Amino acid sequence: GKGEYDHFMLKEINEQPTSLAQAIEGRVDSATERIALSDFEPDTFEDVDSVQFVACGTSYHAALYGSLTLNQAGVQSTALLANEYSVSAPPIDDDTLVIAVTQSGETADTLTALRRADAEGARTLTVTNVVGSTAAREADDALFIRAGPEIGVAATKTFSSQAVMLTLLGQRIAGDLQGEPPADLKSLLPELESMPGRLDDLLASSAAESIAEQYSDSQSYFFIGRGLGFPVALEGALKFKEITYEHAEGFASGELKHGPLALVTPETPVFAIFTGQEDEKTLKNAEEAQTRGAPVIAVCPDGHPAVKAADEHLSIPETEPNLAGLLANVQLQLVSYYAADLLDRPIDKPRNLAKSVTVE
Ligand code: M6R
C-alpha cells in the first residue's frame, strides 16, 4: 500500500535512499577500491570494443547517462532509442556489447532491439528491475537494479537505480577493457556509498513544494543541463509533462541559443541543472534566458555561484559530477509531483499511459 503517502509516486521518490542502498549492496567496496559486480566473471568485458545502449522513455535517459559516463571513461559508447534501432542501428560486430535498459524487462520496442542485436551477433546484456522478465531471460547477461516494485506509472526510483548501476557497470567495463580501474573510481566509490545519506538530507529539506506553488500556472517549463546534466534535463521534462499535463522540454544548455530561446518569456521558468561540468557555461546560458524575463531555478549545491544569479534555488548536496545529476533529478521529481498535485492530476495513473508498453 501507499502507507503514509497520498500517492505511490511520492512513496517511491522517498524510497530512493533505501532502493539505492539495495542496488549497491555488496557491489562496491571503497576499502579495496573495487567494484564487486559478482554478477560477471573477472575480465568478462576485456574484448568489448564498443557499447550500444537501447531503451525507451525514462530508461533511455538512464541509458544516455550511462553512455556518457562510459565515454568519459574512454570507452566508445552510444545510447539509442530502441524504437529507432531497427531503422538506424550503427554497425554491430561480435565485440559490440548491446545493453538493453528496461525497468520492466517487457517493453516491446526494447525487446525488438535486443533481438535484432542478438541476431546480428552482438553480445547482449540487460539492466532491469524484474528477475524472470523477458529481457532477463533473452539477454546473454542480466544486471538487476533491485529497486523493488514500482507502482506509479512515472518511473522514479528505478531511474536512480538504473543510472547508478550503469555508472558502476561502465566503470567495470572500462576497467576490464583498459586493464586497470578507471582513474576516478577511487573517488566515486566512497561518494556512492554516501548517496543514501545525501538523499535522506535532500528529501528532508527540499524546497520543491514551494517552487511548484510559485510557478504552477506558467505556460511552459524548460529544463537545461550540460554533460550528465543533459539526460537529467530530458528526464525532468518528461516527468513534468507526463504527470502535470503541462508543456515541458529538456535541452542541452548550449542548445538554448540555437533555437529554443525564441520560446523563452517571463511565463517559462527555466530549471538549470549544475553537475560540476562546465557550470560556468550553463550559468551563462541560464542568464541568457533570465535576460528575456524567464525565472531561473538553479539546481545546485549551496554556495554555488548560480545560487546568487538565479531567482530560486533547489539545493543538492555536494558530490562528484557522476552523481550530482542523480541528486538534481530527485529535486525535479519532487517539483513535478507537487505541481501535478496542485493541478489535481491523477498522479499515479496519467491519462493515455501504461506502466509497461508491450506494443510497438
Ligand atoms: O519498462 P521500461 O523501462 O522498458 O519502460 C520504458 C518506458 O516506457 C518508461 O521508462 C516510461 O518512459 C516511464 N514510465 C515514464 O515515467
UniProtKB/TrEMBL annotation:
A single cellular component GO annotation: cytoplasm
Active site (record annotation): 355 (for fru-6p isomerization activity)
Any one Gene Ontology molecular-function term assigned to this protein's record: glutamine-fructose-6-phosphate transaminase (isomerizing) activity
Location in the cell: Cytoplasm
Residue ranges occupied by any SIS domain in the UniProt entry: 41-179, 211-350
Catalyzed reaction equations: D-fructose 6-phosphate + L-glutamine = D-glucosamine 6-phosphate + L-glutamate
Primary location group: cytoplasm
The enzyme's E.C. designation: 2.6.1.16
Subunit structure: Homodimer.
Function, in words: Catalyzes the first step in hexosamine metabolism, converting fructose-6P into glucosamine-6P using glutamine as a nitrogen source.
Protein name: Glutamine--fructose-6-phosphate aminotransferase [isomerizing]
Name of the encoding gene: glmS
Portion held of the full protein: 244 to 603 of 603
